[in-house]
Amino acid sequence: MDFSSEQMKRLTELGSDPEDIPGGFSDKAEANRAFQSLEKAAARLCAEGVLRHMRDVRRPEVSVLSETLSKALADFGFTEVATPLTVSRRFLERMGIGQDHPLMEQIFWVGKNRAMRPMLAPNLYYVMVDLLRIAPRPVSIFEIGTCMRRETRGASHSEEFTMLNLAEFGLPLEGRQERIRRLAELVLDAASLGGGMCSFAAEESGVYGETLDIVSPDGLELASTAMGPHPMDGAWGVTVPWVGLGFGIERLVMARAAARGERFGLSRAARSLSYLGGWRLNVPGKEERT
Ligand code: ATP
Ligand code: MG
Questions:
Q1: CATH 3.30.110.30 fits 61-256, yes or no
Q2: Which of 9, 29, 50, 223 is 20 to 30 Å from the Cα of 236, by its Cα?
């Protein structure tokens, strides 16, 4: 007899590795006794983790990594932009996201014609067109910010996540592929995931068509990349070649933890009411722990 699925869920949210959780108990009473003692120990580790986090770390890893990446990109010559959290229906349509598009069902509407942004690309396209008029080429910009999508898949999807989107427009046609690799390397190095740990894989994207994804050592999609000229450029008034890379910061945090040999699910990296610094908060308090 093994632990019930609720018991397994509780132990894993407290940070136990599912592979380390025992099973094969002779009856339910024995399983419950084992659960109680494992739960107590795991909850104590969580409380200690919260205390350690508050003493030594104090900031979410996503925030710290976002700053590290912003700095690396600004040092490399990229300009950071900060655009609105919502986008208009018209902007989504310009991205090819109209009725019948699979992403349409993932949109959080905040009105009939306004949505929480599911990606940064439309806003970056818009700002880019002005910058291409004003500044010498190539124009290199990035944004790091919250995006929202309705998701049904669990372990590596959150409905609110943090995207890093970098875009470079007005590049020569030749060498865009190499440029994508160079920029990917810059971001991965800054995230301590460089040195050939991650790989590229061809993928089909609902928005961009054939794209190149960046994949972590254990097969997690960290980023999707794209390049233009692209059929949707016309809708934005873009006529120059470009490259773009979109990374999920929580995915980078997960991959970095995995590289350290830690199990760190997306729910532990994401915006949360239940975790702090990756540690579950609904554990016994200091009076109850004695
Ligand atoms: P997936 O195939 O994993 O659902 P996607 O291809 O739909 O991702 P993109 O549109 O390529 O996602 O977004 C760029 C990056 O943003 C992804 O590579 C991933 O790192 C991150 N990302 C996308 N959706 C989510 C999500 N729901 N939760 C966390 N990160 C996400
Ligand atoms: Mg993708």
A1: no
A2: 223
